[in-house]
Structures are given as structure tokens and as C-alpha cells.
Amino acid sequence: MLRLDLKAHQNIAIAYFLLAALLGILLRLFYVTPIAANYKYIIHAHSHTALLGWVYLALTGIIYRLLFPNTKFPKKYLYIFLATNISLLGMLFSFPFQGYAVVSIIFSTLFLFCSYLYTGFILRNTPVEHRHTQYFKLIKAALWYMVFSSIGPWALGAIMSTLGKASIWYKLSIYFYLHFQYNAWFLLAILGIVFYLFQKLRLTFQPREFKRFFYLLNSGVILSFFLSTYWTNPPIVFYLLGGLGVILLLFAFYQLFAFILRNKNQLKAGLSPFNYQILKIVGILLVGKIFIQSLTAIPYFADLAFENLDFVIGYLHWVFLGFVSLALFGFLNWLKLIKLPKKAFYLYLSGFLISEALIFYKGLVLWLGLPFFSRYFLILVLVSALIPIAVGWILGLNLRKND
Question: Which sequence ranges are marked TM in the entry (predicted)?
Fold first, then answer.
């Protein structure tokens, strides 16, 4: 029988993060020295390991911890977890050599079914005392968004076999998946954990306030997908819907941040200084995410983002390496599922911030015609290497601790 506990669950997630970070360094080395590999294939391995290995496993483990804190993993969960890891390892060892082909598609499909089984397990087995809480409503919505996002991958197969990769529907399917992963599944799951924190610290988000926040948030999440269609020069109604989505999100997050600011002293008192510092950093990164996303409601900036890949990469890394990953590290440390050394955390943060500055600098160079300094790509590799060093440090410490 497979033996697993929550700490081992999270160590496996961090191991995938380390692998994804190392693949990210390999991708940046392509611009420094000849690499005997297919760049696009490595991108597929990097992105799938990062999103589905690190973020998915970390979030699903935390959700399990919140809803089933005093129980061991039942056999059904262990089998789902095992099948999920088989699918992840299958993608990790097939994508670099063949890209999207028979083997990698089989393992990607297996992962989708595993995510459905996980969602069904949580929704069927969550104890009654959690079901009417504010945090569970957010987590449940997040899980449904994860399932909904999979329409994108399912559509890709049909589109590739009929319309081909040159079709706008090919890119729209990818954008659909990424939007409902980054801006729905990840976001609402993290907010669900934040509301669990509120409840633990006895911070009361009034039911009427929460209902308004919840509907504003979900309406904004759905309508803001239309921002991803601007590059197709769609009918004017698409621009209006995308803009409305941004406005609704701004109202929702204004309400959330106003609540946090009103209760910051209680938050500070209820958390360790280190965990409170992480929460502040994550909050700042969330504000940055909202600002960047809001800019794309303006057609000029939407077109600029579509034409300038560095801005897109910068935004995706801002959300993934910054907001999402730092929130996960903070939650895991708060829940005592990992030991997060301060020096490793700040090393990671330094690598993230400097590499982001370099990525956005390159985007500004291409946009504004600014001077481009030599050795840029080598410096980017060296700075980015701080991230896998920090993640490896965190993983190594926690593996030794669990021996």
C-alpha cells in the first residue's frame, strides 16, 4: 500500500517545482549557448510541470488539509494521487522528446481525468461543518473553474485535426485554458485559503458583504476572459464585456482589500512576523496582477501584449512565480506542512524580482526602442538560477527534517 502524509505530499509538489525551475534555466540557456534539444518541446515540459506538478499538487494538498485535518488519506485519495503522479511523470519524460504527440497526449488526458476524480472526491466527502462556510464556497468554485478550464485542452485536439494550428480557435483554446487556470482556479483557491485564515483568526466577513464580493468576483472572472479575445479584433460587444469584467473585479478586490486593511492589526497579531510579511508581499503582488490585467482592457495595451511576448511572459511569471508560488509557500509554512527558511525565501524573492525586472526591461526595449545591454541573456540565466537554488534549499531542508 502506498504510504503518504501531507508533508510528503507537499515535498513531492516542491520537487516538481524544482524540476520546472531547472527546465526554465535550460530554456534561457538556449539564448546563451547551443542546446541539443527542441525549444518548444522543453517549453511544454516546463509549463506542464510547473502548473500541474507544483501548483496543482500544492493547492490540492492544502485544500485536503483544510477540509480533512484530522484524517489520514483514504485509499481512494491515494489512488488518485498515484495516478496523478504517473500522469505528471509521463508528461515530464515525453514532452521534451516529442512535444504534443501520442504519448504526451495520453498522459495529459490521464491528468484531466485525475483532476475530475479529485474534484468529485472533495465535493462528495467534505464534512458538513465546512459546506456552508465562505472559504468552502470559494474553494468549490475554484474546483469547478479547474474542470471548466479543461474545455480548452479537449477542444485543441478537434481544432488541430480540422482547422489546424493557424486557426484563431487554436490560440483561443489555449487562452481559455490559461485564463481559467490563472485567473479562476488558482485565484479562487488561494482566496478560499485566505478566507479560511480569516475564520481561524475570527475575522468576520459579513454574509451580505461576502455575497456581494463572491458575485462580483465570479462575474468579473468570467467576463474578463473576453480580454483574451481582443487580438482577434472581435465585435465591439466583446470589448465591452471584457471591460465590464475588469470593473467588476476592481470592485470585488476593493472590497477585499478594504476588509484586510480594517483588520490588519488583528491579522498581524494572529500571524508570526514572517508569515505576516509573506502575506503583505503576496497582497502587493496581487495588486500588481490586477493592475496589469486591467491595463489589457485598453485595446492599445491588449495589442501591445499580443505583439510583445516579453510582456506576456513577464505577466505569467508575475502571477505564477510571484503571487501564486509565494502564497503557497506562505500557506504551507503557516499550516506547518513545510519549514520555510527565511534566507531561502528571500533568495527566491530576489531571483523572482530581478528576473522580472529584466524580462519587463526587454519588453520596454522592444516597445520604446531603448538601448539593450550586452550579456543580457547570460545575466538573466545567472539571476534566474537563484530560484531553483532557493527551491532546492527548501526541498532539501524538508526532506532531511522528515527523515
Answer: 12-31, 51-68, 77-95, 101-123, 143-164, 184-201, 213-231, 237-261, 281-302, 314-335, 347-370, 376-399
